[in-house]
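Re: that chain you flagged

S.,

Sorry for the slow reply, it's been a week of failed gels. I finally had a moment to sit down with the sequence you sent. For the record, here it is as I used it:
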Amino acid sequence: MQHVLNCGNAGSCHGGSGAAVYQWIKSLGETGVAYDTNNPYVACSKESTDGFCGPWTQEGNGDCKPENVARTCSTFEQMGGKCVGLDHYPNASIAEFGSVQGADNMAKEIFARGPIACGIDAAPILNYTSGIATGKGAGIDHIISIIGWNKDADSGKSYWIVRNSWGEFYGDLGYVYVEKGNNALMLEEMCNWATPAAFTTDNFPCDEGGENCEPGPDGRSARYVDPGRKHM
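Prediction finished late last night. Pasting the structure tokens below so you have them in one place:
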């Protein structure tokens, strides 16, 4: 999430720690981490210089400030509109987090509480198109999510169902399958789990230009409050 890169101090586009991300989100308490739609992921962090990230960084887009946590831009920004940070935004918080390793323990955790985040050697799967990845790997350099496991009917091999972060153009609509039980691609060495606490299901409705959700000059909210509506 871009909110994490901009504010989390848990890593950058060039490396980080899954456990540190969960620890940071938990430290936010009820404020929580912003949903992706508040500030879409652009694969840049403030030290990035590759591609469009250089100009993006120079404009201050990687700094931790309200508009880089959750923002909205009014229509026709180029004709006088503006982008503003929101003082209230849809978010999620963490109740507990921890680590797990080994195929059996990982499967138990997924079965009990859902997907886990794991380190992986991404080099062998850069050009993945189909099948089950089985290479041993040389070093962890990427984090993915494991959502479950299955068994291939033809080969009899068990495999992890891995959700990558490179987009739906990659692999099987964004997924890659990695052999389960032999630490293929070092996938079974460094995993983390987290359980959700509060998360937004009924948001405060902000105007398209953010006028009713923009922090005032004194730092206090400029938004109106409708006492008849539930808020975050």
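What I noticed first: The domain at 102-189 is CATH 3.90.70.10 (Cathepsin B; Chain A).

Talk soon,
D.
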